[in-house]
Amino acid sequence: MVGYYRVSTEKQGRSGLGLEAQKAAVAAHVREHGCRLLAAYTETESGKNADRPEIHRAIAHAKRAGAKLVIAKLDRLARNVAFVSNLMESGVEFVACDMPFANRFTVHVMAALAEHEGKAISERTKAALAAYKARGGVLGSHRMESAPLTQEQRLKGSKRGAEVTKAKAAGAYVDLYDDVAAMSARGMSLRAIAAALNEAGQTTRRGKLWNAVQVSRVLERAAA
């Protein structure tokens, strides 16, 4: 199994609030079913955001290893029906510890309820802000004049975006670095390493077979 934990704020991530309970639930589920936890991924991000690097790494890892994705509660996965549907269609099995025997229909219903609750929370927040503004309160964007971005700031933003993209590519294969490096150290060619990965059932992060070029890139990232 491959574990996935999520908290919504950095404060929760630092304090362990909610995180320890998720880890305990996953550990108990793994023990109860006599399984092995291959790895675990932790994310600090809103469940409404589908663009989360750690969940994608966890899914890719589970898919490559033929493992099952395990989460403490369904709402830790996403408050988004489309996201859950895409995960189910990806071929990766997943289980929520709070309802381990749920079928596909149940999962869709629970995801829909979680999405509905997320929207309800958002609407209540907007209503509260509107009421505050109506009473004369000043909201953030109106407290000071927004200055346009400088050229330096735009360049930093562009550089940061490139770094994030590069980090995603590097992180996708972090669990394979040691094995690939060890095969290379034994004198295996790039093509031979690719063949070994394919024979072991591993795939690239795009779900394709390995080739010499892909292996070369992973070796470069592992050495960086």
The averaged pLDDT comes out at 77
Q: Main sheet?
A: 4 strands, parallel
The strand count comes to 4
**Overall form:** globular
Strand order in space, largest sheet: 2-1-3-4
Oligomeric nature of the chains: single chain
Low-confidence stretches: 141-146
Q: How would you characterize this protein structure?
A:
This protein is an alpha/beta fold and about 220 residues long. It contains 9 helices and 4 strands; from the N terminus they run βααβαβαβααααα. The protein has helices spanning about 10-15, 20-30, 55-65, 80-90, 105-135, 150-170, 175-185, 190-200, 210-224, and strands at about 1-5, 40-45, 70, 95. Strands 2-1-3-4 form a 4-stranded parallel sheet, sandwiched between helices. Residues about 140-145 have low confidence and may be disordered.
Summarize the structure.
The protein has 224 residues and is α/β, with parallel strands linked by helices. 56% of the residues lie in helices and 8% in strands.
SSE layout:
Elements: E1 2-7, H1 10-15, H2 19-32, E2 39-44, H3 53-65, E3 69-71, H4 81-89, E4 94-96, H5 104-134, H6 151-171, H7 177-185, H8 190-199, H9 212-223
Parallel strand pairs: 1-2, 1-3, 3-4
Helix pairs in contact: 4-5, 7-9, 8-9
